[in-house]
């Protein structure tokens, strides 16, 4: 190993076969961190996951067989690293209750990144609608803080792959070319960041004291747009005006209540991002936050306009 890699934290990533975890592992290896991936046995019999593991292993990932449920092997791997990044899915967030005591037992972890990677769970004011999606993430924060584990929480807002491929139209697979629904008055700004950029920002924070015990917000100026602005950009690209149908906040709430869970969650996220706009209306300093694009101006993130070009 070269000396640059030796001076950098060793990172264990949980969830390298998943969507974000794979990007995190690539970014970590790219930045010359010694990188370990905790992988469940079942992943090896899934051809897509096996392909990802082969790719990462060729790039230098050390694969560690285990799971959050296997505390002994978990503690053994934790003792080899300085930093843990967890990227289990939203459904598995409370499984991190197994990880926190293991981190405590290992005693060597200088920083933990729980699986968040979305809107700030302590700031998002829709908990009555979301079946405790954000409450579960907040619960893990409180556990981490109660145990005195050093942390960084990553609040990256929406992944570009989540709502942007449909131009924020629930149920569509591609952006509309005739008519479009706009929720609320269409002037509330939401934020999108590409997963590979989320990963690059996350890995940049690992050894940065400015982000220790802080919330890292990602709100790139070029990617913070209202639905009206988003549609303006799309119209220019396709050279055509769309029929704009405004859906009031009350109507969106009615649709959310009438649609069974979890099918209504996409509308819940649209409500929190583009009607309530929680992520753009608070002062990050009073929220124990730092802004990723200000700390790492050299990271060339993908803009919404560039992303929309890939959908033409
Ligand atoms: N901001 C947004 O727009 C947005 C969108 C989607 C997700 N997210 C957030 O991003 C984070 C990651 O979600 P994702 O969609 O990337 O997840 P994902 O693709 O479902 O991947 C989950 C990963 O966790 C692993 N895993 C699950 N349970 C495990 C266990 N008990 N032990 C070890 N590994 C385990 C899975 O391994 P196997 O391969 O063995 O199953 C898989 O690698 C979540 O916090 C989610 O809420 C944000």
Describe the structure in your own words.
The chain is built from 13 helices and 13 strands. The chain is of the alpha/beta class and 312 residues long. It has 2 domains: 199 residues, NAD(P)-binding Rossmann-like Domain (Rossmann fold, 3-Layer(aba) Sandwich), CATH 3.40.50; 80 residues, UDP-galactose 4-epimerase, domain 1 (Alpha-Beta Complex), CATH 3.90.25. The protein has a 5-stranded parallel beta sheet, with helices on both faces. β4, α5 and β5 form a beta-alpha-beta unit. The radius of gyration is 20 Å and the shape is globular. This is Probable pinoresinol-lariciresinol reductase 3. It comes from Sesamum indicum (Oriental sesame). Pfam families: NmrA (PF05368).
Comma- or semicolon-separated keywords:
single chain; about 300 residues; alpha/beta; Rossmann fold; UDP-galactose 4-epimerase, domain 1; 2 domains; five-stranded parallel β-sheet; three-stranded parallel β-sheet; binds NADP nicotinamide-adenine-dinucleotide phosphate
Please sum up the structure shown.
The chain has 312 residues and is α/β, with parallel strands linked by helices. 39% of the residues lie in helices and 16% in strands.
